[in-house]
UniProtKB/TrEMBL annotation:
<dbReference type="GO" id="GO:0048354">
    <property type="term" value="P:mucilage biosynthetic process involved in seed coat development"/>
</dbReference>
<keyword id="KW-0472">Membrane</keyword>
<dbReference type="GO" id="GO:0009825">
    <property type="term" value="P:multidimensional cell growth"/>
</dbReference>
<keyword id="KW-0336">GPI-anchor</keyword>
<dbReference type="GO" id="GO:0005886">
    <property type="term" value="C:plasma membrane"/>
</dbReference>
<dbReference type="GO" id="GO:0009738">
    <property type="term" value="P:abscisic acid-activated signaling pathway"/>
</dbReference>
<dbReference type="Pfam" id="PF02469">
    <property type="entry name" value="Fasciclin"/>
</dbReference>
<keyword id="KW-0449">Lipoprotein</keyword>
<feature type="region of interest" description="Disordered">
    <location>
        <begin position="361"/>
        <end position="398"/>
    </location>
</feature>
<feature type="domain" description="FAS1">
    <location>
        <begin position="28"/>
        <end position="182"/>
    </location>
</feature>
<keyword id="KW-1003">Cell membrane</keyword>
<feature type="domain" description="FAS1">
    <location>
        <begin position="199"/>
        <end position="344"/>
    </location>
</feature>
<dbReference type="GO" id="GO:0098552">
    <property type="term" value="C:side of membrane"/>
</dbReference>
<keyword id="KW-0654">Proteoglycan</keyword>
<dbReference type="InterPro" id="IPR036378">
    <property type="entry name" value="FAS1_dom_sf"/>
</dbReference>
<keyword id="KW-0325">Glycoprotein</keyword>
<dbReference type="InterPro" id="IPR000782">
    <property type="entry name" value="FAS1_domain"/>
</dbReference>
Amino acid sequence: MTVSVFISHITPLTFFCFFLLSSSAAADLNITSILSSFQNLTSFSSLLTSSSVASDLTRRQDPITLLAVPNSYLSIPPSSDLTRRLPPSSLGDILRYHVLLRYFSWTDLLQIPPSGVLVTTLLQTTSRAPANFGAVNITRNPLTNTITIQSPVTFSPSNATVLSLIKTLPYNITILAVDSLLVPYDFNLMTSETRPPLGLNITKALIDGHNFNVAAAMLSASGVVDEFEADEGGAGITLFVPTDGAFGDLPGNVRLQSLPADKKSVVLKFHVLHSYYPLGSLESIVNPVQPTLATEDNGAGSFTLNISRVNGSVAIDTGIVQASVTQTVLDQNPVAIFGVSKVLLPREVFGKDSAGAMAKPGNPVVGANFQPPETSPSPEDSPWLSGPASSPSGFHEDMKSNGERFRLQSCIVALCCIGLYLLV
């Protein structure tokens, strides 16, 4: 007997809508939330939080690979010696050395050549690692597929072996279990031990610069300078401060002083990155689209600065203003202050589409360059402590999304689907 199955003509449309909605999702990088599912990584997660590295990662938009040390390995030498002996600032730099600024799938790891691959870490972006000592060299034994990670310096005394893949959220983050904390070569000579005491007076530094009196007055009057100075710890901060001439060149329709206090505060925070970037790091910044302190208050993807190198200088593009770094006012880890040629006006406040409908640099476009999501090993079934680089089993897709910047996009897609449904 033949059984006929009727498939509604709406089904293809339904799948199409589901595809668009799912492809518009992106994972927020809340590393503490991700690691909370793994009881064997609680100590490592606590170190990330206490050293402020977790908050550094939350603000990043680049894909990363995190090298996590399980509790059992973190409690024995040499890792246990490092966690007990190092001050928070140095321990934070050690942990930044475990954040690879590149996404590696399990397939990518198994394709690494025996000669190795040099990969930049989050530590390298701080300029506290001399030469390329803030990078790691990843090698693979072609006979055993053992993955080893160490300093690029030949015969480095510090190295770690990949135990297994813990989790992957394509194409955002991969978490690998390794058997030891890594120490960058020549770590004791790095400037992480010579940070100045907190309490640096930013307003005084601007007044001493003799060309930033307007900015100093605005920062002091608004009260946000206190918040900036409170954020000097951890990853530090980078301020882009307009010169007095830049304020004089503002268009006649831009009246900063007449803005409500909350909007004025947002504009000032738009001039600050929540990481310490000396000039050399800005000139070679990995991700040109950088979140600001205003991003933290208004959601991922908003109030970002596009930083690049143009004609030998650092250029900053807000979407409606293009400025350049004109001078270094202060570069004293963990604070960098740079003079800029124009007031950085966020388009969310001063642009034509300030309500938030305008696309922002670096935001993904629905359907553009879509790739099938990679699979992820089931944490419950993964034999991640069974041996070096053991191949995970029970792969499954595990995509999560809480990104504010995609909600409007998803609503538009849903409305389009409903309209198509009614027209059919």
